């Protein structure tokens, strides 16, 4: 497969067929005659010196192996043939083992003259038995002993094994007689599968022939159904462990769904049940069509090419196609960038299309097996089986029947007679709660050519499709079957473009089509009243949505324009305006769908990267939304989108941010936004706090209720205000300068650490650095300055343990780290350096550092937004630079999307004014880009060793009563509300 040919590949069917083993030239891999001559020379030169002879033999075989594998890799890069590469390595291994075997018998144990009936046989089993071997794979060997073994047999086998191990091979081996193989095969399905593929390498051929004959007669005969059931159950368990989807963006090429092991399982079953030696025999038996067999070979060849590249690149048996090698493999296979898609994304799309083809082949193969088994049932069993699974009519349908709870075809030509049946098939299955008969899916897959523009515009077909999409049962399951069968991508070509499309980043766990189907599933679960504990507001809003159909269409199509050069939200809106009328949506519904798709990222980005206590944030967001109906649908769509990204992406804290944004915007859109001045509301909050401190003395009630400024009083709940007052009073009683307090929040999946310390311009940077040193990811923080010059910071970190006691102990440990760093007991640069020591810089992903400075996003603050690659301690370094620049951080929002962070800071200068000077904007940008590019070691070096240790007393106050540490304006102290921070990013 030349590189220039591969670079033009768009679909796997364009790959040239894999060569047959007999057509592969092995002569370049190893000069057998030369190696044999070298081995004979070693034997004669060291005839009486066993150890030197062994060392010389080991060196010769190692050199031959290294040269042969290097040549196999060179040929792989030249022709791209995966099966050819695996066959070359297998052939090389065969020759090395055969030469070793002969050497041991001839020159070590002098047993070459023994009659064949007394010699051993060396057989390859498992994958190696098929004549294919990956560069880093184990070598599975079966040493067959004669019935009457001689004393030299086992020592000779041991000698060979130790030499193979010394060569660096991982050898899986068994030493048995033929009788033992048969007996163990009856008991163990794994041993049975291994022997199924036994192949003679060297030694006594009669032993292997005897094993094959007895295995076929005593084990295989009449046990086909048992073997099939065991292998399919094994496959299902393997899929479950691997995530039960073939669309993970870091797939396991060997064990994952749609990987090599699935193809191997098909071949094992075929060989066992149909008693065939080669997969090509399945065409003669009518199990696979000729085109399906070629697809089998092409898929096998492609997956082997990827696997061999993985092993060669990593130098080990790496089976997970991880991000750090995807780009290099794409380059090796000749993929190139296209508009809207990088080379690695094109390569991975190709991979997932192949994995999908493997699923198609599995379905077709299983259908043939089921039909064959039904024909072979004996008389009474056949009658019982027909009774249990008798075919029933489906009410209202003449085209389809119910075959044991599975929808089947009434006649084989129903799709050709009426192509609408291609959609009706899935609709009837949904309405009647039926599974899908594999034979029907096989016929459907072979009828995809009937999906033409005429069918796509057919009113009945589109009505049925919308009914499937908006079903109140399980639309995701039916849509997934449509997608796997190839119907969904053909019926909606725009969807077909994103089938198997991956996004090369750490944020998205699935391909785009898998993400969209999972999003529909999330919406369906909300619609059915499920998961109310995870997203209570979305569950409450769903029954109020008037345009339910529009919402389902928007969720299905919100990422349908991914992989295009233009912005996918805007391009998706254009596609929706073309598709929605085809689905018979009204003009109003169409515009709703288009708007939702165009704005589907807005609510998430505003909630996570903007200050929700800044009224202009709410005003700007409300202006984009404009109506309560849109707000409700956008809220639900945002929840579905985030939850479908992948495991661990959604958490309760993100839900809380979205709910806060929703409620604030709802008040404004409904005309309920409070007109009471902030000063009056703050005074009322202070009086409520005064009343709530019932067990405080009169003096303490007055002191601790007057300790806070407006932002604190208006954004912190009364319960938390009371808890903080008790915490501060206890700290004052013990005359401590520094204290921490912890609390867990199981629903939000976060843990809260409250820090009370003397205020300091670098306090935020030091706390963030301490959290980074402790390995804590900060998701949010509320930071305020009290009227006596102290900082009251509540840091919210990701929860790590499910048990509260364990999490509390962890949080207390992090709190002690913060105290130690603030007091100077631990050196911050030192602890961060020790944590990052030995950690390799992430070179897989590149995020160009970007800085945006805006004065239009807030009426009071300049908003500085930075975007860059994540790393440990980044937040600490950025905030230290902002302090160096004499910028006062009032609110910070740190959001992580996989490997990328988007950090937003609401800042002023030290007198509380916006930063308007363009020259200063340029200076801020340059300094921030430098630290984001990891050019700021001097920032760490200038970090203060500790606040308390430096003897910095609580700061004084400005004449108007505001704290002078971060802001002098009385309306806003050091922080104006909540913010989200991630210490590791």
Automatic annotation (TrEMBL):
Segments of skewed composition (Polar residues): 965-976
Regulation: Uridylyltransferase (UTase) activity is inhibited by glutamine, while glutamine activates uridylyl-removing (UR) activity.
Region of interest (Disordered), ranges: 958-985
Enzyme Commission number: 2.7.7.59, 3.1.4.-
SUPFAM superfamilies, alphabetized: ACT-like, Nucleotidyltransferase, Nucleotidyltransferase substrate binding subunit/domain, Poly A polymerase C-terminal region-like
CDD domains linked: ACT_ACR-UUR-like_2 (cd04899), ACT_UUR-like_1 (cd04900), HDc (cd00077), NT_GlnE_GlnD_like (cd05401)
SMART domains tied to this protein: HDc
Keywords in alphabetical order: Hydrolase, Magnesium, Multifunctional enzyme, Nucleotidyltransferase, Repeat, Transferase
Catalytic activity entry: [protein-PII]-uridylyl-L-tyrosine + H2O = [protein-PII]-L-tyrosine + UMP + H(+); [protein-PII]-L-tyrosine + UTP = [protein-PII]-uridylyl-L-tyrosine + diphosphate
GO molecular function, one term: [protein-PII] uridylyltransferase activity
Keyword RNA-binding: no
Any Gene Ontology biological process: regulation of nitrogen utilization
Cofactor dependence: Mg(2+)
Domain of life: Bacteria
Domain HD stretches: 512-628
Domain ACT: 752-833, 863-944
Location of region: Uridylyltransferase: 1-395
Domain comment in the entry: Has four distinct domains: an N-terminal nucleotidyltransferase (NT) domain responsible for UTase activity, a central HD domain that encodes UR activity, and two C-terminal ACT domains that seem to have a role in glutamine sensing.
Function: Modifies, by uridylylation and deuridylylation, the PII regulatory proteins (GlnB and homologs), in response to the nitrogen status of the cell that GlnD senses through the glutamine level. Under low glutamine levels, catalyzes the conversion of the PII proteins and UTP to PII-UMP and PPi, while under higher glutamine levels, GlnD hydrolyzes PII-UMP to PII and UMP (deuridylylation). Thus, controls uridylylation state and activity of the PII proteins, and plays an important role in the regulation of nitrogen metabolism.
Family: Belongs to the GlnD family.
Protein name: Bifunctional uridylyltransferase/uridylyl-removing enzyme
Organism: Rhizobium quercicola
């Amino acid at each position: 497969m030349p590189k220039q040919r591969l670079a033009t590949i768009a679909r796997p069917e364009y790959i040239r067929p894999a060569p047959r083993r007999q057509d592969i030239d092995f002569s370049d891999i190893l000069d057998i005659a030369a190696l044999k001559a070298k081995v004979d020379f070693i034997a004669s030169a060291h005839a009486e010196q066993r150890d030197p002879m062994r060392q010389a033999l080991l060196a010769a075989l190692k050199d031959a192996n290294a040269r042969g594998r290097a040549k196999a890799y060179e040929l792989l890069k030249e022709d791209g043939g995966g099966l050819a590469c695996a066959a070359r390595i297998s052939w090389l291994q065969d020759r090395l083992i055969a030469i070793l075997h002969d050497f041991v018998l001839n020159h070590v144990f002098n047993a070459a003259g023994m009659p064949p009936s007394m010699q051993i046989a060396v057989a390859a089993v498992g994958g190696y038995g098929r004549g294919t071997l990956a560069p880093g794979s184990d070598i599975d060997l079966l040493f067959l002993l004669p019935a009457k073994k001689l004393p030299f047999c086992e020592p000779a086998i041991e000698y060979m094994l130790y030499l193979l191990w010394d060569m660096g091979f991982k050898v899986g081996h068994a030493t048995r007689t033929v009788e033992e193989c048969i007996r163990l095969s009856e008991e163990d399905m794994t041993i049975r599968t291994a022997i199924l593929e036994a192949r003679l390498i060297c030694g006594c051929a009669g032993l292997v022939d005897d094993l094959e004959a007895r295995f076929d007669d005593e084990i295989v005969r009449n046990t086909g159904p048992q073997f099939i059931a065991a292998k399919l159950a094994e496959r299902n368990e393997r899929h479950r462990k691997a995530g039960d989807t073939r669309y993970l963006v870091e797939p396991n090429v060997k064990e994952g769904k749609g990987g090599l092991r699935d193809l191997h399982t098909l071949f094992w079953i075929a060989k066992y049940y149909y008693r065939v030696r080669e997969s090509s025999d399945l065409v003669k038996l009518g199990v696979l069509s000729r085109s399906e067999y070629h697809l089998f070979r092409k898929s096998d060849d492609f997956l082997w090419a990827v696997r061999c590249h993985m092993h060669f690149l990593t130098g080990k048996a790496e089976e997970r196609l991880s991000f750090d090698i995807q780009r290099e493999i794409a380059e090796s296979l000749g993929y190139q960038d296209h508009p809207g898609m990088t080379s690695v994304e094109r390569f991975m799309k190709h991979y997932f299309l192949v994995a999908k083809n493997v699923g198609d082949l599995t379905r077709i193969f299983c259908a043939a097996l089921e039909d064959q088994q039904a024909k072979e049932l004996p008389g009474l069993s056949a009658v019982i089986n027909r009774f249990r699974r008798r075919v029933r009519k489906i009410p209202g349908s003449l085209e389809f029947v119910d075959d044991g709870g599975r929808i089947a075809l009434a006649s084989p030509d129903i799709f050709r007679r009426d192509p609408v049946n291609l959609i009706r098939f899935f609709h009837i299955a949904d309405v009647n709660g039926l599974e899908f008969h594999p034979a029907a899916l096989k016929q459907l897959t072979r009828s995809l050519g009937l999906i033409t523009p005429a069918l796509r515009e057919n009113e009945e077909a589109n009505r049925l499709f919308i009914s499937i999409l908006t079903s109140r049962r399980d639309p995701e399951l039916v849509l997934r079957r449509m997608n796997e069968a190839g119907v969904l991508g053909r019926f909606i070509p725009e969807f077909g473009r994103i089938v198997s499309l991956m996004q090369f980043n750490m944020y998205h766990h699935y391909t785009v089509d898998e993400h969209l189907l999972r999003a529909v599933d999330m919406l369906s679960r909300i619609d059915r009243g499920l998961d109310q504990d995870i997203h209570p507001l979305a569950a409450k809003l769903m029954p109020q949505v008037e345009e339910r159909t529009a919402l389902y269409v928007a969720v299905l199509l919100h990422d349908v324009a991914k992989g295009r050069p233009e912005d996918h939200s805007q391009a998706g809106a254009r596609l929706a305006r073309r598709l929605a009328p085809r689905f018979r949506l009204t003009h109003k519904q169409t515009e709703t769908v288009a708007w939702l798709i165009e704005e589907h990222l807005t609510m998430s980005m505003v909630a996570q990267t903007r200050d929700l206590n800044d009224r202009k944030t709410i005003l700007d967001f409300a202006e984009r939304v404009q109506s309560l109906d849109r707000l409700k649908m956008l809220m639900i769509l945002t929840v579905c989108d985030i939850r479908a990204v992948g495991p661990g992406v959604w958490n309760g804290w993100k839900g809380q941010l979205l709910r806060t944004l929703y409620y604030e915007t709802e008040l404004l859109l409904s005309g309920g936004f409070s007109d009471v001045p902030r000063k009056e509301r703050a005074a009322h909050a202070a009086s409520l706090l005064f009343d709530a401190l019932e067990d405080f003395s009169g003096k303490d009630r007055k002191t601790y209720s007057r300790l806070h400024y407006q932002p604190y009083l208006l954004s912190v709940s009364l319960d938390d205000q009371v808890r903080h007052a008790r915490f501060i009073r206890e700290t004052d009683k013990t005359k401590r300068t520094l204290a921490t307090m912890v609390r867990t929040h199981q629903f939000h999946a976060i843990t809260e650490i409250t820090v009370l310390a003397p205020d300091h311009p670098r306090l935020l940077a030091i706390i963030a650095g301490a959290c980074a040193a402790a390995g804590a990811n900060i998701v949010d923080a509320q930071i305020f300055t009290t009227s006596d010059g102290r900082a009251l910071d509540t840091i919210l970190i990701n929860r790590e343990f499910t048990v509260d006691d364990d999490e509390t102990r962890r949080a207390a440990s992090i709190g002690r780290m913060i105290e130690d760093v603030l007091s100077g007991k631990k050196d911050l640069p030192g602890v961060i350096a020790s944590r990052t020591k030995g950690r390799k810089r992430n070179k897989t992903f590149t995020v160009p550092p970007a800085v945006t400075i805006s004065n239009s996003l807030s009426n009071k603050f300049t908003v500085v937004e930075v975007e860059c690659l994540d790393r440990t301690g980044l937040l600490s370094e950025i905030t230290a630079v902002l302090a160096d620049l004499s910028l006062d951080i009032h609110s910070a929002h740190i959001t992580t999307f996989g490997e990328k962070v988007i950090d937003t800071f609401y800042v002023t200068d030290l007198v509380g004014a916006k930063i308007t000077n363009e020259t200063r904007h340029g200076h801020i940008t340059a300094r921030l880009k430098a630290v984001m590019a990891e050019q700021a070691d001097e920032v760490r070096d200038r970090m203060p060793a500790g606040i308390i240790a430096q003897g910095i007393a609580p700061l004084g106050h400005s004449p108007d009563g505001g704290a002078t540490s971060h802001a002098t304006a009385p309306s806003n102290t050091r922080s104006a509300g909540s913010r989200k921070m991630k210490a590791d990013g």
